[in-house]
Amino acid sequence: MADIKCPMCAKINPSDLDECKFCNARLKPLTDELSRSQPPIRPGDQPKPIDTDELEPVLPQWLRKVRQQNRDSADENAQKELEKEEKAAPKDNVDLLAGLQSQSDINEEVPDWLAEMRSGGDQNTLEEISPKEHDQASSNIISKEEPLEAGKGEASTLPGWISDLGTSELDSKTDKVNQSETFPSPAEEKSSAMDFELGAEPEVSSSFLKDATDSISSNLSGLEDNSLSPQNPVSEEPSQSIEADSDLPDWLATIEEKNAKNSVMQEPAQPELTKGESEQILTNGEDPNTLAQQAAGQLSSENKVPDWLSSTGEEAASAQESLAKSESNDLQKPASDLPEAFSSTDKESREPDPGQDLPTDNLSGGIDGETTIAENEPVDLQNKEVDAIFSTDMPDWISEIGTETKKEDGATPGEAQDLDPVDLPNWVQAMRPLESVFSESDSENLGDQTLEEQGPLAGLRGVLPAVRGAGPSSKPKAYSIKLKASEDQQTSAALLEEMLAKEINPKPINTQPVILTQRIQRWGITFLLGVTIFGTIFAGTQIIPMPTRAPFETSAAMRYIQEDMPADAPILMIFDYDAALAAEMEAVAGPIVDHMLLLKQPRMGLVSSNPIGSALAERFMAFPQANHNYQSGQNFTNLGYLPGGAAGVLAFSENPAAIKPFSVNGEPAWETPVLQDVKQLSDFAAIILLTSDLESARTWIEQTENTRGESNFLVISSAQSGPMILPYVQSGQVDGLITGLNGSAPIEQVNSGRPGTIRLYWDAYSLGLLTAVMLITFGSLWNLVSGWQMRRKNSIET
Amino acid sequence: MAISSELLSAIISFLMTIFILSYLIRDNPLFRAAIYVFVGISAGYVAAVAWRQVLFPLLIEPIWTGAVFSNPAQAILLFFPLIGSAFLLTKVSPRLGGLGHLPMAYLVGIGAGVTIGGAVLGTLIPQINSTFEAFDLELAAASGRNLLLTTVNSSIMLLGVIGTLAYFHFGARLHSDGSVRRNVFINILTWVGRIYIAITFGVLFAGVYSAALTALIERIDSMRIFFNQITLSL
Predict the structure, then answer these.
(1) ipTM higher than threshold 0.90
(2) Which of residues 411-450 of A touch B (CB under 8 A)?
(3) What residue ranges do the domains of chain B occupy?
(4) Domain range spanning residue A17?
(5) CB within 8 Å of chain A, chain B residues 10-69
(6) Which residues of A touch B200 (CB under 8 A)?
(7) A472 inside domain
């Protein structure tokens, strides 16, 4: 068989050992043998009644001794009689432990050994205990041969300070019972204490004794409940209280038995005593000299019990003694001169400091200067029985003491080897949740001897079963935390990041020195232009000469009108300009139309794709060309507004008579002498577009591209749209273009100065342009100089 | 003294001109009143024109007089604009506004198709042909133009066209240093196109200023005429 490597010291041990022979570390888990010998408990399985006699070898030594004693002292007949007595007992008797017996009868799962022990305990509890038995019980506490066996379990599950607390409270309450049968309420506590101090003889009543003992019982039950609560609450499983009861030390069990006896005889318990109450009662209830003598007498024979435990035993003994006195109503002595340390439940006496010997000051101080037990009897923790009490579930400091004791005694940890595979009782099986979840066979098949390396189970092997399917079946897929992105994506991301960075980072505003406020600038410009224009207009000056040379696009229009345009031919004039620019458009179109009307007398059809255009057309014919005496319906026909935008223009170019059948006067336009010979767009000799908008010009140019035919297409435009129409002239789509006053001025000169509007405007126009040029130039130079000065200043500063 | 319509119109014109020019001070009620008057009159006039020149003579009158029923084809043609107009009027109602989507879709679709077709056939292709023909020396010789000047002018025009188009080309490449830049040649063309665009904007600004200056001159001249009329009338 393969050897086992110790998880703690890493030395090789034989496989049959449970603990390392070098370091005593456990090589196998405690549940190893049990788990191998026992079939797993499945969820929903009913516990099986098992003969628990076979568990006796598993039991600790103290429990086996208790069991043996109970076997000797109890028999089945006594148990039956006890049951009869319980049934015959008054119902109002409140005995917390009494109900456990009936519950245990119902529960067939209680092992025999426990039933026997319970019967013995119950018998002792319910039977009246004689003072001799009390003495015997008290002697058990301090007996060296049978030390505290019954309290082993309780002590093993409770910290020492709690045990001491319970003992102290027990002691104090017992003393209180001895002193007075009237249990003082918190309000009456002070007065009752004063009565004791004044030597008043307290009234002895059975109710006080009952209350005190019931409170003690409740305290003990609370302690027991705490120890048992994880698995079986007492309220649901009273039988567990019996088990806890059986685990109590003898001295504590004796007290409890006494309490049980009192509880049987007396009324239900009052609320349990508080710490202060117990201290007060302890202070007032007993003569310290008596207590000290009793404690000294008892503890003198207990050489190897630690001080704190000695104090516990002393207190317990004193409690029992006081209890015996209370039975005989021996409460003749008032309390006086009780030392503080003894009267108070000092924390140090209840909670010894680990790592050092238990304090002996409590007793030494509490016996009023007399020679203390601690001084006369040094603490010896090598008592094997005491070690057995604290061998399991003890605080670390107690466990360490226990380990040292084992080593010194040379005792081998052979109890674990005595654990043979047995059938566990049901209540033990119910405490094995691990096997109910995981199949034991699975763990066995896996050969689970995994060494735990971390956590509280570090060093143990096979304590956690590894079951197939409990963990991931395959190795988890590895994912890279690095973002997988192509170069293009990274480039795009970098570009986006750069763009966002530019947007996020605020750009400093280049503040230029403010020369003048905007209002001053505005008024300054207005003043300059006003002086220039008002002066020239109101003065009527005509100083600045007009241009005589027309650009080629204007020359082409003039050439067509003068040479190529047939006389009395139908022409189409399109008025597509806004009213705001009517002045410019009338001034620009006036000379060429006047020249055309003088030379060719064309018949004119007027149309507009602008709703205002029809009115502007009427105005144009009425005022600038009024001298020609053109009459509507005879010399021209106003077709009015052409709706539909580009679609309307396209439709009109394809079939003008169908789209605009009537004039603005409601007459059939195409039946009038003006347009009677016109059937389609190409029948017009010329199409003259007067527009101030590039979009309008482009619409007419584009939509009539294929329907104009041989018609000449001339455009008279505002100065603001002329430059954008010029490419259509160069492409041949427009035959002539007259733009602004500058383009129309040569025509007016050619037209003998008629109508003279351009001449009237020319000086103001020229000076206005010059003023604008000067202002722009001056402003640009100012900004240039100021910028240069600013840069120079910045360079000097830097 | 009887006030003639011409004098009345001159007075109104003068006052409106003053109201508009009062904006030089700041935004004031007179300016806003003049603006409201212009907007209201324009809207009313447009509605009147649409009714008097379009809806009544072309849609309502034929149905009202029954003349349309003598020509079934014309009656069918009038049916669609009539239904379309009725659907457009339903847009004033949120519940029935969906009916107006159909005539709106028709108008938008027809308008877009006509505009795009006209732009391609009437502007884009002719302008491209014009750019090519600028280098036609035979045509230049036939028209009596100087071939050298024609070539120079054509080259300048071509450079301007290419530079302007290059300016609106936003393609770039990632370089080794991580920067994104355009090609050097494209950058040069872009710089040239920027100059052309700047000149074009300058010309447009000059044209706008010239048109506005002409309108201002006309208004001041109208004021002069008004004062002359007032003076003569007095």
Answers:
(1) no
(2) none
(3) 134-234
(4) 1-60+415-467
(5) 24, 42, 45-46, 49-50, 52-54, 57-58
(6) 723
(7) no
